[in-house]
DNA sequence: GTTAGGG
DNA sequence: CCCTAAC
């Protein structure tokens, strides 16, 4: 997934697994059990602007109880690969009040940039609620990582690969795929990346390092590659079927919307209008044709229409790309970063059902891709992928079909994964649920759970730009979340406010919650309340100041002095 | 095109 | 989340 700036955004487990499985394959087994006994949370605390220390014991990260000394090596490697000194300076602008501590290893690596402000690592319980501080994923056990993962994405994961988990979480928290660092310390939603180039040179490479290096390199390459792809995505690419090539076809408008921000693919019209017309005209003729076309297999008449998936090989490695087609634009994206279809879009499966031919092609294509992989994947990996993608009882055909439309990245787990749905029903669309309307019609309603990282972003956005400036926040803080509209942000904020005020007073309310869809760390709720209060009083004093614009111009930036 | 609110 | 009325 790419946002307007060409930044990368996390994709699904499956997708990652898919790709990483290829890269790591058998190597995976080496570190699959990696678990460190000495799980030290290296989380520094930051004092909130209001002076309130953001300290709270989190709800649930249990101290790691497992102590498999065996795997020490790997985790040790993971940590020590990171030169303590060199850290990116990119985050320095937020440092002002900030970087209080860092997860430093007692490793006297050569310091390249002066990391003057860094302090020692505080060994404490990993506390995920300290969201404003740094979150150090490095020393967490798998179990803890799972917790964090769940908190971050609102779903469970079965992946046991620590590195993977860390990267995944980091990506989630960071909203970036630029998590190639070998150390995972997240601060202020950004990955505090320690220089890893030096790292690899300075560190004696151990057993597991290879795969790690690969992963890192892969990531970086991917980034570079992606940007280049974006740049020349107007040129034709070639289809090359190599060893590691997978070809997939997906419809994605988000991509287009994101990559070519200038072009507003979807119109602000209400969806119900679309759907009404959709329901009434069963023919779909126009659309079907379009969709078939965009699927990208027939020689298109126009230049930009179908773009063959191409795989780019990077230094011997191969990056799998996907052909994303949307509204006539084919855009290739590395599978890993594929994003889910944006909400206002039509559901492709519905279209497909009217054009079996198109579907057939797609299916075979995908199958082909998988077959290719299958040969390289050990059964374990393969099964894992399959398992993640389809329900056990699903037939292979179903799987193929399913994988075509599903691809639901972020919250598959929460949405009960992929349940088998009648291929002919349009209810099959991922996270689009049909709801009966009063008028007797049915309307699709999609639900996408807010992830912790999203909430964090929202809160941050509000703190920076002020509640009410949703479009701003949307543009600046949610650039990568194409599916969250400003209205969504507004609504979520409303809910957060409700939650923060309803819960904190007695604190018992928290427990009374039946099924808190996602437990929002108290620290966040706290912050929400703070912000709410600040903004509330910020608007009241207007009487005296006479000019709202006095503070309006600067918005609520005063809230977080120096904060970015 | 955005925002605030009710549903 | 969806839909609308009001900017």
Key traits:
564 residues; mainly alpha; Serum Albumin, Chain A, Domain 1; 3 domains; 3-stranded antiparallel sheet; 3-stranded mixed sheet; 12 strands; disordered C terminus; DNA-binding; nucleus; Homeodomain-like_sf
Structural class: mainly alpha
Q: For the residues shown, what is the average pLDDT?
A: 46
Question: Segments where pLDDT lies below 50 for 5+ residues?
Answer: 1-133, 193-430, 544-564
**Morphology call:** globular
Fraction of residues in helix: 40-55%
Characterize the quaternary organization of these chains. Answer: single chain
Provide the gyration radius in Å.
24 Å
| Measured distance between first and last alpha carbons | 25 Å
* Discrete helix count: 21
> In which order are the strands of the major sheet placed?
3-4-5
Instruction: Quote the beta fraction.
Output: 5-15%
Q: Tally of extended strands?
A: 12
**Count of individual domains:** 3
Largest sheet: 3 strands, antiparallel
Question: What does it look like?
Answer:
By secondary structure, the chain is mainly α. It has three domains: 32-211, no CATH class; 232-409, no CATH class; 452-559, Orthogonal Bundle (Serum Albumin, Chain A, Domain 1). It has helices spanning 13-24, 27-31, 72-80, 142-153, 162-174, 197-202, 209-231, 253-259, 271-280, 285-295, 348-354, 356-376, 379-389, 396-405, 452-465, 470-477, 486-503, 508-512, 522-539, 542-545, 548-552; strands spanning 41-42, 123-124, 134-136, 185-187, 190-192, 249-251, 312-314, 317-319, 321-326, 329-334, 432-436, 442-446. The chain has a three-stranded antiparallel sheet. Strands 6-9-10 form a three-stranded mixed sheet. Strands 1-2 form a two-stranded antiparallel ribbon. Strand 11 (432-436) and strand 12 form a beta hairpin. Helix 12 (356-376) crosses helix 14 and helix 15 (452-465) runs parallel beside helix 19. It is globular. Mean pLDDT is 46; it is low at 1-133, 193-430 and 544-564. It binds a DNA duplex (7 and 7 nucleotides) through residues 268, 270-272, 343, 443, 445-448, 468-471, 486-488, 490-491, 494.
